[in-house]
Amino acid sequence: MAEVLAPQPPLTPSQEKVYFHSGSTPSYRLVSSTTTPITTIPTIDISNIDSPDPAVRLALAKELISACSTCGFFYLSGHDLSQTLQESTFETMKRFFSLNLEEKMDAHVQKNPAIRGYEPQGETRLDPNTKADFKESFTMGDCPLEPEQNYTSKTGQQPPSKLKRPQNIWPSTAPWFREGLYEYYNAVLPVSLKLVRLLALGMGLDEDSFLDSFFNFPITGMRPLHYPPVAPEDKETDSQNIGLGAHSDFSYLTLVLQTPSLNALEVLTPTGQWISVPALPNTLVCNVGQYLESQSNGRFLAAVHRVRNKTGEERYSLPFFLTMDPDANVKVILEKGRDGEEEKRKFEDFNVGDLYIKKVLPARKKHPTSIKYREVPESEWTYDLLLQ
Ligand SMILES: O=C(O)CCC(=O)C(=O)O
Ligand SMILES: [Fe+2]
User: Fold this and answer.
1) Which residue intervals make up region (Disordered) (predicted)?
2) 223: nearest Cα among 361, 316, 300
């Protein structure tokens, strides 16, 4: 990855560090035990996001910029995802995860060259210092060949001829699963794109500039997750029993729907404290991903987070990961200070697809696609490896 962040200062004995999964290379952030100035994440109400009054939109944009630069996480309220849709989506997830293992394994991730599909409990371990992740999950994402995604009406083009088969894999005994997920996917994608407009505005650019340049048919991912409750045996093994290990998201923006009222998601603040991010009714939890962090030259933070479900109840969540068009070439935005001088560059300009493949293959080392290209030098990997 083309990251040129200065090396971390050496740790003193009193400092604990947290490993987090960021893709190819091991990454660490400091954990501090001093009192944190951030104890909760802000809420942004976007009910007025389509206001014809530019001043209203600009005020919202500023709130968003502030949230992204303070801790990189925020609650989103006033989105237009109906309560009925949210409830039916949870029902769809619950019904899928309660299928027997064989039916779920019918869509196992290993059967899909694009590295999407079902992953049973314990199949991933984002943090090598913990036990395997206790969650089970299913991943689907952008695909020009699936009619639900309306590729031609979105892009004015026919699907690329190099695409021979759909990139998603679906369980054959559960057509309702695909249907239910697409209903949510097609509702949440426009919400995420509205946030992209707001980001451009907040960064002093034309509202449509990012959308027009980088989000014509972006890489997306949607991952229903099921976290059975973890019962920590004792305090010592507490931090080992993890639903999903510490990581930062490999996306531009992530929008998460989570089981209302449960408290399991934890975020590492910039000052190094874990804070809890409980599910608030009718909100999505949103966060900055690594692409936005890079584009903003680190001004916005791809915060480290993890999930530990110690509630004794089943938890379901549904992250929607918005990335950018795979062929987009993104220039890092360097701010000018009061003195007119450009800030110091911390990240390099990047090609979205190139960066994506360099993160995705190492993150799933045992997957047949990763094994196939293990001997090929990383510099020769291209996004098209996933499109076979
Ligand atoms: O389950 C959650 O609330 C968060 C999931 C998450 O962080 C992820 O899938 O990247
Ligand atoms: Fe995440």
Assistant:
1) 137-166
2) 316
By C-alpha distance, which of 260, 263, 193, 250 is closest to 223? Answer: 250
d(CA 341, CA 344): 9
User: For residue range 277-308, what is the model confidence (pLDDT) as tens digits?
Assistant: 999 999 999 999 999 999 999 999 999 999 98
User: In the chain, what are the domain boundaries?
Assistant: 4-387
pLDDT given for residue 3 in this prediction: 30
Contact 318, 221 (CB under 8 A): no
Percent of the chain with pLDDT strictly greater than 90: 69
Residue 305 Cβ contacting ligand 1 at under 6 Å: yes
* Superfamily in which the 4-387 domain is placed by CATH: B-lactam Antibiotic, Isopenicillin N Synthase; Chain (2.60.120.330)
Tens of pLDDT, residue by residue over 107-149, are 999 999 999 999 999 887 887 777 888 889 999 999 999 999 9
317 lines ligand 1 (CB under 6 A): yes
Name the pTM for this structure. Answer: 0.90
Q: What is the structure's pLDDT at 67?
A: 96
How close is the Cα of 315 to the center of ligand 1, in Å?
Answer: 11
- Determine the atom of ligand 1 nearest the C-alpha atom of 264: 3
What are 48's two structure tokens?
Answer: 């007025």
214 membership: H or E segment, kind and range: helix 209-214
